[in-house]
Design brief:
It is found in: Cell inner membrane. It comes from Candidatus Paraburkholderia kirkii UZHbot1. GO terms for molecular function: ATP binding; ATP hydrolysis activity. It holds the Pfam family ABC_tran. With about 325 residues, the protein is an alpha/beta fold. It has helices at about 5, 55-65, 90-100, 110, 120-130, 135-145, 155, 165-180, 195-215, 225-230, 250-255, 260-270, 270-275, 290-295, 310, and strands at about 15-25, 30-40, 45-50, 70-80, 85, 100-105, 185-190, 215-220, 235-240, 240-245. It has a single domain, classed as P-loop containing nucleotide triphosphate hydrolases (Rossmann fold, 3-Layer(aba) Sandwich), CATH 3.40.50. About 40% of the residues lie in helices and about 20% in strands. The longest helix is centred in the middle third of the chain and has 18 residues, at about 195-215. It is globular and about 45 Å long. The structure holds adenosine-5'-triphosphate (ATP) and magnesium ion. Magnesium ion binds near residues 57, 58, 106, 188 and 189. Adenosine-5'-triphosphate (ATP) binds next to strand 1, strand 2 and helix 2.
Length: about 325
């Protein structure tokens, strides 16, 4: 596979996911977590995947990155810059994905190695992928920490993850993700567990870096505000399915799917809309036998504003 050939294909979407299914083998049987998901991310676009906790957002992101655990079964088609990646050997896939896309994972502390300095974790990327010497790679690590707004980067580069604050760890993860200047950055809840000020700073940083580097961003979040503020296009996930997709304004202004009252209210107040869902603990159970339509109907008893038509409205999976 020739990476430079792929870089010439300016018109193909950077990411094309078609009919993606992910299930996990468990003692109780197979659990289908992602069902028939299809969407495309254009080059340079910001695409948000939003959905409540447990709807399968991180699983979908990990399936794209090839980071699922051993009990996962993935079917469908994932194309990165025109190259189908599910059929690649693990080695070829690692190489392509390492060069072309990067993930900022949901838990910054768990994603960083506690036994190695942050600087070395950034430098390692250059040493492995670019064959740089340790000294040169550490210099690049200092530059990246500075680019992501970490103060005193020459000093901080020698610190361990536990010596960083939550916001700084998130920046360190962003620095690692940006090291190889990927075409696609997948940011899985990049602002979870951060206070409002740091959250705003991280989002601003992502948007600044996105325009500086011209990369596409796939942002995964349960926060409609983050999706609305950052994205050009948006996909709503519910119980493993894509239930709505389109330009952000359309999703908020002309809600087409089950939670129409909630989405309509989003236009007035995104914060108030979140209260519509009664209890995240009463998430529909997913079984092998459960059909999509039944999963969707399960929404009805979870929302105070559900109407009769929430039950009857049903759609085939959508393609963004
Ligand atoms: N390795 C696994 N084995 C079995 N089930 C799993 C595994 N990984 C994830 N799941 C299940 O998949 C479902 C979706 O999890 P996922 O982490 O994708 O949700 P999410 O939408 O990212 O939620 P959150 O917003 O809380 O991060 C959960 O019910 C979870 O228990
Ligand atoms: Mg998640």
């Amino acid at each position: 596979m020739n990476v430079s050939t792929l870089r010439g294909e300016a018109d193909t979407p950077i990411l094309d996911v078609a009919g993606l299914n992910v299930s996990f083998g468990t003692r109780a049987g197979d659990v289908r977590v992602v069902r028939d998901m299809s969407f495309r991310v254009a080059r340079g676009d910001v695409f948000a995947v939003i959905g409540e906790s447990g709807s399968g957002k991180s699983t979908m992101a990990q399936a794209v990155m090839g980071l699922l655990s051993g009990n996962a079964m993935t079917t469908g088609r994932i194309t990165l810059a025109g190259q189908p990646i599910l059929s690649l050997s693990p080695r070829a896939r690692r190489r392509l994905c390492g060069e072309r896309m990067a993930l900022i994972s949901q838990d910054a502390l768990a994603a960083l190695n506690p036994c190695t300095t942050v600087g070395f974790q950034i430098a390692e990327t250059f040493m492995v992928h670019r064959g740089m010497s340790r000294r040169a790679a550490m210099r690049r690590a200092v530059e990246l920490l500075a680019q992501t707004g970490i103060p005193s980067p020459e000093e901080r580069v020698h610190h361990y993850p536990h010596e960083f604050s939550g916001g700084m760890r998130q920046r360190a993860l962003i620095a690692i993700a940006l090291a190889l200047e990927p075409d696609l950055l997948i940011a899985d809840e990049p602002t979870t567990a951060l206070d409002a000020t740091i959250k705003a700073q991280i989002l601003q940083l992502l948007m600044r870096l996105r325009s500086e580097l011209g990369m596409a961003v796939l942002i995964v979040t349960h926060d409609m505000g983050v999706g609305a503020r950052m994205a050009d296009r948006m996909l709503v996930m519910y119980a493993g399915r894509a239930v709505e997709t389109g330009p952000v304004t359309d999703v908020f202004d002309v809600p087409a799917y089950l939670c129409a009252p909630c989405s309509r209210r989003c236009r007035v107040s995104i914060a108030r809309a979140r209260r519509c869902v009664r209890s995240p603990a009463r998430r529909p159970r997913r079984r092998r036998s459960r059909t999509g339509a039944r999963s969707i109907r399960a929404a009805r008893w979870r929302c105070r504003n559900a109407r009769r038509n929430c039950r009857s409205r049903s759609r085939s999976p959508m393609t963004a």
